[in-house]
Amino acid sequence: MALSTTITKKSVTLITVGVYNITLNMLYADGETVILDQNFTEPWSTGQAFSAVFFAFKAKMMAAIANYKTEQAESSTAAD
């Protein structure tokens, strides 16, 4: 099956005046089989470039996928 990633907005909460926590959910699946279902949260301040938050989310999500792939490779090697 083909691997797919679906990212959805879960919540935006006000922490203090001008500071928000943005929470996104990442669903990483192989067809109908969910491999990762994980939430990621980043703070965002009014006036801050959203690109900084975007790249922070992207880095965390890519790291989660890489960690999963590493664990899979290690467990398949251990099974041999």
Features:
80 residues; alpha+beta; 3-stranded antiparallel beta sheet; 3 strands; 49% strand
Q: What kind of oligomer do you see?
A: single chain
The mean pLDDT is 93
Q: What is the terminal separation in angstroms?
A: 24 Å
Tell me how many strands there are. 3
Helical content stands at 25-40%
Global morphology: elongated
Q: Which segments are poorly predicted (pLDDT under 50) over 5 or more consecutive residues? A: none
> Largest sheet at a glance?
3 strands, antiparallel
Return the string of H and E elements: EEEH
Helix tally? 1
Spatial extent as radius of gyration = 16 Å
Structural class: alpha+beta
Strand content: over 45%
Describe this structure in words.
The protein is an alpha+beta fold. The chain is elongated, with a radius of gyration of 16 Å. Strand 1 and strand 2 (19-30) form a beta hairpin. A three-stranded antiparallel sheet has the order 1-2-3, with helices on one face. It contains one helix and three strands; from the N terminus they run βββα. The relative contact order is 0.17.
